[in-house]
Write a structure and sequence with these properties.
By secondary structure, this protein is α+β, with helices and mostly antiparallel strands. It has one domain: Alpha-Beta Complex (Cyclic Phosphodiesterase, Chain: A), CATH 3.90.1140.10. The strands form 3 sheets. Strands 3-1-9-10 form a 4-stranded antiparallel beta sheet, with helices on one face. α2 crosses α3. The relative contact order is 0.25. The model has no long low-confidence stretch (mean pLDDT about 90).
Length: about 190
């Protein structure tokens, strides 16, 4: 199985992001139903290891948080641009959840992810840099900012590659717990 761990996005936010997906001729736009924020790509793993990862993720404890997407950027150098993305305004809650997910998958026997985590939602991928229209696109859309949304779960997705692009399927979801008041003991509980 080819698996990854991600935050699903609300339908209305995916619609807003889909509205940004035009104006670059050489872009391979991510299908709106596939838009997500990846916490950890696992790659091809066997059923036993997938079960171990599932158990480790199910035991992961983390609280819900609010998230807002903001700004656009690219991965890659000028001549070798690979992807166009929307960033995260306050990445700390996502980074904390990602670090916990990373520890969980390592406890399940996976090797550490050697890449530095940069929270983002990929909008498009490139085979060739879409110059010069990329500069204009970024100038026109860089002020993008979503409404905040509640992150209440993360999901283990499988990915099936096809000629028309990948098909993602939720294999398991892991609810986050609601934050308890700091002075819960003083409330008689």
């Amino acid at each position: 199985m080819r698996l990854f761990i991600a935050l699903p996005l609300p339908d209305d936010l995916r619609e807003r992001l889909a509205a940004l997906q035009r104006g670059l001729k050489k872009a391979r736009w991510v299908k709106p139903e596939n838009l997500h924020l990846t916490l950890r790509f696992l790659g091809e793993i066997d059923g036993r290891q997938a079960a171990d990862v599932d158990a480790a993720l199910a035991a992961l404890g983390s609280e819900t948080f609010s998230l807002r997407l903001a700004g656009l950027g690219c991965f890659g150098e000028r001549r070798n641009l690979r992807a166009l993305w929307v960033g995260v305004e306050d990445p700390e809650p996502v980074r904390r959840l990602q670090a916990k997910a990373e520890r969980a998958v390592q406890q399940a026997g996976m090797a550490p992810d050697g890449r530095k985590f940069k929270p983002h939602v990929t909008l498009a991928r490139f085979k060739r840099a879409p110059r010069p229209d990329l500069s204009g696109y970024l100038q026109s859309n860089n002020l993008f900012r979503s409404e905040p949304f509640a992150v209440t779960e993360f999901v283990l997705f499988s990915s099936f590659l096809t000629r028309e692009g990948p098909i993602y399927r939720a294999e398991a979801s892991y609810p986050l717990r609601w934050a308890q008041p700091r002075d819960a003991a003083s409330l008689g509980g």
